[in-house]
C-alpha cells in the first residue's frame, strides 16, 4: 500500500498509456474489419432467394476467414519485435503496439463481424428490399444496426484480450501497466506487481462494462 | 367483365432457373380495384409470379405491364416503393418501433418524419390496433398483430396495388379468420388492386373477386370468379384441386337468409330435453339433465347457407343457434329446414323447377 501511495502519479500515467494502447487498436481494427467482413459475405441472398450463394462467394469467404485466423496465431511478442523491422520505427515506439494490436483486432473482429452479418435474418433484408431500399442504404439502415448485437459480443472479447496483450509490450520496453510487472520483478517489489495485476483487471472490468452498456443502448429493441 | 381496367398484365412471361421452367408462358390480366387470388399446389410458381410484378424476381422473357407501363421502365426500387408487399412472416424491421416500421416507404419517398408519423398512427387504427402499439418493437407483438402492422406498412405506400404472399398462413385459424374479415372490410372502403397468394382454397373463395388456379409449371389452369370455378372446373386438375368439400364450398355462395328461424322453445318436445342456456342474451351452451354442454358454431343472421348447415351439424342438440351481429340470440335453426334450403339452392343453380 505504501508503494502505491508514493507512486500514485506514476501508476496513473501508466494506466492512461495502457488505456490508449488498448482502445485505439480496437477502434481502428474494427473500422477496418467490418468492411472486410462485409466484403467476404458478398451479395446477400434474399429470404425466398432469388440468387443462390455462388461457389466463388464461398471461396472468398473461406479465404478471408482463414487468413484472419492465421494472423491471430502469430505470437504477440514476435509481432511486437517484428514491427520495427517492417515499419522502420524504434523498438520502443508506441506505434509498434498500435499496429500490432490493430492486426490482432482485425483478426478477431473479421470473424465475429462475419457471424454478425450472418445473424441478420434474410427475411428482414428481403422485406427491406421489397419496400424499396437500395443496397447501400439497406446496409446502413438495416443490416448494420441488426448486426450490432453479435458484433458487440466480439468487440468485448477483443477489448479484454487487448488489455492483457498490451502488457506484453513492457517486455521490450514499451510503457504500460505491464511495466509494473517487469519493473516489480526486477526490483523484487511484490507490491508493484500486485498493483499492476489489480489495475489491469480493474481496467478490463470497467471497459467491458462500459462496452456492454453501449451495446444494450444500441440494441434497446431486443430487450424492450 | 371486360369493362374493368387491368392494373397488371402478364404477357407471355417465362421464368427459368437453369433448365427448370418455373413459369411457362404466363398470360394473365388482373383487374383494377379487385382482389385476385393466386391459388394452386405447392411449388407451382405462385410466389415467383407474384414477385415478378415488383421485380423481386426478374423474369426471363415476356412483358409485365403495371398500370399500362412496362415494369422494367423505371428502376426496381422505385417500382417497389410504388406498391405494397406483405410477406408471410411479417418481415418487420426488429430495430424499429411500430410507427417507424409503418413509415418506412413514405420516409424512403422523402415524406417528412412528422407527416409520416401522423399517417402511420392513422393506419394503425385502420388495421385495428390502438395507438399504444406505436412505440413498441416488433418483438413485443403476437403473430396476428405483427401481420396487421405488415398490412399497415403496405398500405402506407399509398399505392393502388398490394401484393400479399400467404400473409395469414402463419397465424392460428381464429386469428386468420379475423384478419380475413378485416381485409375484406378494408377493401370495401379502399378498393385497391390486391393480388393474394394462398394454397388454401377456402381462403381463395372467401377473399377472391377472381381466382387464378395455377397448375405446375406456372400454367394458369383456370381464371374466373370463385363461383365459376366451383361450378364449372375447366379440367380434371382444377376439379381435383377444388375437389374435396366442393359441395360444401358451393353453399358459401348461397344465402341462408330464407331458412326459417324458430323461437327458443321450438325444440322442446316431451322426448327431447335439450335447453339453450342464455346469459345476458348470449348463448352459453346447451343444458341436459343438469349437465351443460358447450354449444356449436353460431349462425349470424344473414350468413351463408354453409354457415347455417355448420351451425346445425355442430350443435349438440341438433338445432342451430341464430345470433345477430352483436351475438344476441335470435332463435333456432332446424336441420330439416336447412337441408330443404340446400335442395332449393341445387335446383336453382341448374335452373330446374322442383
Ligand atoms: N432461386 C431459385 N432457384 C431455383 N429454383 C427456384 C428458385 N426459387 C424458386 N424455385 C423453384 O421454382 C418453383 C416455383 O416456386 P414458387 O416459390 O414460385 O412456388 P409457390 O407456388 O409459391 O409454392 P408454395 O405454395 O410452396 O409457396 C419451385 O419448384 C421452386 O423450387
Ligand atoms: Mg409461395
UniProtKB/TrEMBL annotation, chain A:
The keyword Transport is assigned to this record: yes
State the Gene Ontology BP annotations: glycine betaine transport; transmembrane transport
CC annotations in GO: plasma membrane
Q: What is this protein called?
A: ABC transporter permease subunit
Cellular compartments annotated: Cell membrane; Membrane
Per the UniProt record, which residue ranges are transmembrane? 20-41, 62-85, 91-110, 163-181, 193-218
Q: Does the keyword Transferase apply?
A: no
- What CDD domains is this protein classified in? TM_PBP2
Q: Which family does it belong to?
A: Belongs to the binding-protein-dependent transport system permease family.
Task: Describe the location of the ABC transmembrane type-1 domain by residue ranges.
Answer: 11-215
Keywords tagged on the record: Membrane, Transmembrane, Transmembrane helix, Transport
Superkingdom in the source lineage: Bacteria
InterPro entries according to UniProt: ABC_transp_perm/SBD, MetI-like, MetI-like_sf
Topology of the protein relative to the lipid bilayer: Multi-pass membrane protein
- Spell out the SUPFAM superfamilies in the cross-references: MetI-like
Amino acid at each position: 500500500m505504501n508503494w502505491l501511495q508514493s507512486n500514485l502519479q506514476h501508476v496513473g500515467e501508466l494506466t492512461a498509456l495502457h488505456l490508449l494502447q488498448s482502445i485505439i487498436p480496437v477502434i481502428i481494427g474494427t473500422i477496418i474489419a467490418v468492411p472486410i467482413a462485409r466484403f467476404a459475405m458478398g451479395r446477400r441472398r434474399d429470404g425466398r432467394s432469388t440468387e443462390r450463394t455462388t461457389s466463388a462467394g464461398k471461396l472468398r469467404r473461406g479465404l478471408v476467414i482463414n487468413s484472419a485466423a492465421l494472423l491471430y496465431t502469430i505470437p504477440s511478442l514476435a509481432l511486437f519485435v517484428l514491427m520495427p523491422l517492417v515499419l522502420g520505427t524504434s523498438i520502443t515506439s508506441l506505434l509498434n503496439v498500435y499496429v500490432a494490436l490493430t492486426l490482432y483486432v482485425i483478426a478477431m473482429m473479421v470473424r465475429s463481424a462475419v457471424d454478425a452479418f450472418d445473424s441478420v435474418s434474410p427475411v428482414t433484408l428481403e422485406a427491406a428490399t421489397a419496400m424499396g431500399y437500395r443496397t447501400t442504404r439497406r446496409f446502413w439502415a438495416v443490416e448494420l444496426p441488426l448486426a450490432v448485437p453479435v458484433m458487440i459480443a466480439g468487440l468485448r472479447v477483443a477489448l479484454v484480450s487487448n488489455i492483457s496483450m498490451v502488457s506484453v509490450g513492457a517486455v521490450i520496453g514499451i510503457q504500460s501497466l505491464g511495466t509494473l510487472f517487469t519493473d516489480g520483478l526486477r526490483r523484487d517489489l511484490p507490491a508493484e506487481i500486485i498493483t499492476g495485476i489489480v489495475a489491469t483487471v480493474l481496467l478490463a472490468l470497467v471497459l467491458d462494462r462500459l462496452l456492454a452498456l453501449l451495446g444494450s443502448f444500441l440494441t434497446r429493441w431486443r430487450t424492450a | 367483365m371486360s369493362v374493368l381496367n387491368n392494373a397488371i398484365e402478364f404477357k407471355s412471361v417465362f421464368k427459368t432457373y437453369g433448365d427448370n421452367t418455373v413459369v411457362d408462358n404466363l398470360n394473365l390480366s388482373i383487374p383494377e380495384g379487385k382482389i385476385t387470388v393466386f391459388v394452386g399446389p405447392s411449388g407451382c410458381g405462385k410466389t415467383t409470379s407474384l414477385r415478378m410484378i415488383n421485380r423481386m424476381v426478374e423474369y426471363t422473357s415476356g412483358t409485365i405491364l403495371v398500370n399500362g407501363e412496362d415494369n422494367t421502365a423505371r428502376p426496381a426500387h422505385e417500382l417497389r416503393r410504388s406498391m405494397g408487399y406483405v410477406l408471410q412472416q411479417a418481415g418487420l424491421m426488429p430495430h424499429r418501433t411500430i410507427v417507424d416500421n409503418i413509415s418506412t416507404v413514405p420516409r424512403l419517398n422523402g415524406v417528412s418524419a412528422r407527416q409520416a408519423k401522423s399517417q402511420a398512427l392513422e393506419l394503425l387504427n385502420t388495421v385495428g390496433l390502438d395507438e399504444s402499439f406505436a412505440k413498441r418493437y416488433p418483438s413485443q407483438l403476437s403473430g396476428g398483430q405483427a401481420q396487421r402492422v405488415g398490412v399497415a406498412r403496405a398500405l402506407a405506400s399509398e399505392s393502388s396495388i398490394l401484393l400479399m404472399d400467404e400473409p395469414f398462413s402463419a397465424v392460428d385459424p381464429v386469428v386468420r379468420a379475423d384478419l380475413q374479415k378485416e381485409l375484406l372490410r378494408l377493401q370495401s372502403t379502399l378498393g385497391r388492386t390486391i393480388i393474394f397468394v394462398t394454397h388454401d382454397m377456402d381462403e381463395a373463395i372467401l377473399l377472391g373477386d377472381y381466382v387464378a388456379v395455377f397448375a405446375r409449371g406456372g400454367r394458369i389452369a383456370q381464371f374466373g370468379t370463385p363461383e365459376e370455378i366451383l361450378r364449372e372446373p375447366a379440367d380434371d386438375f382444377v376439379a381435383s384441386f377444388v375437389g374435396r368439400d366442393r359441395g360444401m364450398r358451393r353453399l358459401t355462395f348461397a344465402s341462408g337468409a330464407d331458412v326459417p328461424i324458430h323461437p327458443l322453445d321450438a325444440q322442446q318436445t316431451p322426448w327431447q330435453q335439450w335447453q339453450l342456456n342464455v346469459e345476458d342474451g348470449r348463448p352459453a351452451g346447451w343444458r341436459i339433465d343438469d349437465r351443460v354442454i358447450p354449444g356449436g358454431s353460431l349462425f349470424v343472421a344473414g350468413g351463408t347457407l354453409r354457415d347455417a348447415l355448420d351451425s346445425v351439424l355442430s350443435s349438440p342438440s341438433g338445432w342451430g343457434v341464430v345470433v345477430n351481429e352483436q351475438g344476441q340470440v335470435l332463435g333456432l335453426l332446424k336441420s330439416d329446414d336447412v337441408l330443404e334450403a340446400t335442395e332449393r339452392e341445387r335446383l336453382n343453380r341448374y335452373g330446374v323447377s322442383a
